[in-house]
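Hi, here's the filled form for the chain we discussed.

Project: internal
Contact: R.S.
Residues: 71
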Amino acid sequence: MTTASESDDPRVPIVCPDCETTSRVPLPDVAETVERHNEQLHDGDDVATVDPDIADQIADLVADELGLLEE
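And the returned structure, exactly as it came back:
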């Protein structure tokens, strides 16, 4: 049986304007990575996030798939 390795997971861009950093993390690790960064470096404030352009594209794809954009 073949299992997907972590390197097979899509990598999502994470940006932090306060730290002026950008990184890419595997999709399954996004929430934990963003939360850990914000807790450790920004007292829990939501500073680091998924790149807003990518987040908008994902939201549009999900809305389209769910038929939310149909009239």
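Let me know if anything looks off before we file it.
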